[in-house]
């Protein structure tokens, strides 16, 4: 951190899983020295060993000998977050306390019930994560370019809000302000229901034969990528946002019922007349196109239409690295990448996304370097 930069607050991180440890790593990279605390000695010593901060006392033990926090970040499972936040507000009467749980309304409701001093509490939620859990999966760049939602209300101390936003920006996030209800409705649609949808689709694969599953391509991999998530954690998240999730699922169910009805009208053959049925199917896909087009591009920018250049990549060590190097030497910025592995084939296809103007030059450069393009 440069000498002219605003000093970061002294941060205590309670909970040293993926998010807590990643915050610690990011803060250390920004020049801070967070203190780590957890009920599990193994969890917090692992986070310490990985470079996420210095060890504090085990949760529930005496704090003597450690610096007083300016900001306490509670990164515990949602079902214990309210009690941990309330305890932190009591233990450190001069500190701001935030939590990073993915539900906000129910936590604030429980804090009111517990009689916690809410003027120093700032609910927040970094919109970042991974399919893997625990400190071993933590990364210092996890929050870079990602939204960090801050949920304050009229009674919140403005200095407390500023402190949380200062730390969010220090780890590379883009701060967004919402009310707890706005946050919970938004994440139900963009995070919680997608998780359920991925899990439900993936569950359809379980009874299939090995031959049938072997036909799976990149499409089903994309749809089910987040299905390998922690059932315990997600049960807590969904229970904590039950009302908002139920509302989105009810709307989804109504549309599914329409699609199921249309398919029933068409199941007797392609020459079936079935007035209106095909329009229902077309509208479902078209509405999906419209929704997909609203997903922000890189770094929160407006959505961008990219051109895909498909390259055949042999399945052997170093080939993908060679492709990346050749793209870099051609002076082309790779916007996105998807790998599709052929069933039983000794190669895959790398779908390289670039801005449209770069597609032609990239194809020429790759052909000149001996790569085979896949049409």
Summed up:
With 375 residues, the chain is of the alpha/beta class. The protein has 13 helices and 12 strands. Helix 3 crosses helix 4 (105-113).
Structure in words:
- The structure is a single chain.
- By secondary structure, this protein is of the alpha/beta class.
- Among the domains are: 168 residues, 3-Layer(aba) Sandwich (Rossmann fold), CATH 3.40.50; 67 residues, VC0802-like.
- 44% of the residues lie in helices and 15% in strands.
- The strands form two sheets. Strands 3-2-1-4-5-6-7-8 form an eight-stranded mixed beta sheet, with helices on both faces.
- α10 packs antiparallel against α11.
- It is globular.
- The mean pLDDT is 90.
Question: What is the helix/strand order?
Answer: EHEHEEHEHEEHEHHHHHHEHEEHE
The secondary-structure class comes to alpha/beta
Mass-distribution shape: globular
The side-by-side strand order for the widest beta sheet comes to 3-2-1-4-5-6-7-8
Largest sheet: 8 strands, mixed
Indicate the CATH class of the domain at 11-178.
Alpha Beta
- Level of helix content? 40-55%
Task: Name some characteristics of this structure.
375 residues; alpha/beta; 13 helices; VC0802-like; Rossmann fold
List the helices and strands and how they pair.
Blueprint: E1 11-14, H1 18-29, E2 35-37, H2 41-49, E3 54-55, E4 71-74, H3 81-91, E5 96-99, H4 105-113, E6 121-126, E7 147-151, H5 158-170, E8 174-177, H6 180-203, H7 210-213, H8 218-224, H9 231-240, H10 242-266, H11 277-292, E9 307-314, H12 319-329, E10 336-341, E11 347-354, H13 356-368, E12 372-373
Parallel strand pairs: 1-2, 1-4, 2-3, 4-5, 5-6, 7-8
Antiparallel strand pairs: 6-7, 9-11, 9-12, 10-11
């Amino acid at each position: 951190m440069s000498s002219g930069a605003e000093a970061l607050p002294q941060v205590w991180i309670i909970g040293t899983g993926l998010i807590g440890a990643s915050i610690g790593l990011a803060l250390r990279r920004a020049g801070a020295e967070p203190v780590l605390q957890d009920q599990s000695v193994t969890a917090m010593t692992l986070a310490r060993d990985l470079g996420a901060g210095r060890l504090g006392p085990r949760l529930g033990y005496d704090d003597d000998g450690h610096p007083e926090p300016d900001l306490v970040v509670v990164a515990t499972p949602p079902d214990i977050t309210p009690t941990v936040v309330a305890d932190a507000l009591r233990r450190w009467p001069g500190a701001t306390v935030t939590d990073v749980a993915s539900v906000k309304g129910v936590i604030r409701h429980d804090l009111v019930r517990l009689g916690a001093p809410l003027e120093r509490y700032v609910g927040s939620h970094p919109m970042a994560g991974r399919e893997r859990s625990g400190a071993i999966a933590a990364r210092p760049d996890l929050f870079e370019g990602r939204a960090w939602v801050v949920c304050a209300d009229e009674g919140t101390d403005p200095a407390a809000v500023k402190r949380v936003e200062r730390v969010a920006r220090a780890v590379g996030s883009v701060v967004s302000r919402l009310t707890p209800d706005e946050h919970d409705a938004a994440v139900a649609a963009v995070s919680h229901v997608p998780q359920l949808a991925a899990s439900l689709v993936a569950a359809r694969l379980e009874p299939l034969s090995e031959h049938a599953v072997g036909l799976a391509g990149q499409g089903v991999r994309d749809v089910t990528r987040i299905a390998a998530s922690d059932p315990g954690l997600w049960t807590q998240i969904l229970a904590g946002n039950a009302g908002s999730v139920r509302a989105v699922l009810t709307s989804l169910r109504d549309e599914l019922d329409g699609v199921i009805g249309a398919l029933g009208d068409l199941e007797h053959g392609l020459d079936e007349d079935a007035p209106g049925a095909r329009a229902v199917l077309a509208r479902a896909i078209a509405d999906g196109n419209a929704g997909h087009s609203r997903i922000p591009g890189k770094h929160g920018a407006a959505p961008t239409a990219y051109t895909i250049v498909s390259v055949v990549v042999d399945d052997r060590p170093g080939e993908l690295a060679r492709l990346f190097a050749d793209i870099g030497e051609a002076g082309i910025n790779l916007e996105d990448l998807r790998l599709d592995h052929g069933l039983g084939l000794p190669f895959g296809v790398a779908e390289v996304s670039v801005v449209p103007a770069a597609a032609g030059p990239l194809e020429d450069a790759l052909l000149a370097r001996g790569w085979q393009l896949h049409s």
